[in-house]
From TrEMBL:
The chain holds residues 321 to 620 of 649 of the full protein. It comes from Tegillarca granosa. It is found in: Membrane. It comes from the Eukaryota. Residues 25-300 form the Protein kinase domain. ATP binds at residue 57. This is Protein kinase domain-containing protein.
Amino acid sequence: LQDPEPHIYEQVLSGPWELNKYNLILTGEKLGHGQFGLVKKGFVSKESNRKIPVAVKSLKGTASEKDKNDFMNELNILKKVGQHPNVVCLVGACHIQGTLYVAMEYAENGDLRSYLRKSRRSKQNMYQNYKGVSCLQRYILIKFALDAACGLRHLAEKQIIHRDVAARNVLLDENLIAKVADFGLSKHEDTYVKTSNTRVPVRWLAPESLFNAIYTTQSDVWSFGILLWEIMSMGGTPYHGIDTQTLCNLLKQGYRIRRPRHCDATMYAMMMQCWNEKPECRPTFHELYMRLQRMVEDSQ
Ligand code: ADE
């Protein structure tokens, strides 16, 4: 019996991304909770019996129109992003019995925020130098930031605004290479003005996004500054203990998060530049990438 093929899937299921349904193996293993429900582990079988692990997001035919549109938006963004070592890339998509499955690159070490929080308690932290942070740790933290900046520079070149840059949306592969993930809110536009009243990641948002609903690559740079802060605080919560209304008032007065304990002045200065009130005065992802590369070299 043939599966019904709703037309909404046809545009995404034709072309190079189409997976033969017999090549997608689903396991029951849960990886996390996406906006559209569970992300599960799977495998895609390639030629010569090679199986590659994937993370599978699914969309049931019975989902709401809004969920379907958002899911399609994410899939179309993933196609535009293409392949990049610091982005969680699309592997393929297929349609099985009314459900659309999207297979993405699998990132073995999970999300960066959880990884940093686990590392707070691990043995690695016992080898500390007099400044309280080991050389290895300093290197790996800056390397995470460099990888994320490289992925975000690629998105900026493709004119994609991510809109949800945060440590929870950066994943780590088996070699601890950081990859930007989760394009659920992303837009392929120069400037996106949000119209609907959906939830937003308040603590990561630039003032122009928070107060005027304006999103650009330069508002992603602000969020990247918050991501730098999350990395240097080993997975801390930005503006911890401050409620949304108070945070809005503080931002209007020019308040910024304080320097984390083990963060040096150069790194803190970089965050503060990302948090410039004027979007055009913030550094670009290319500048951030170049500066982080120098910092990685110096920390080796
Ligand atoms: N959780 C959500 N997406 C994932 C991915 N691509 N790899 C591993 N875990 C994930």
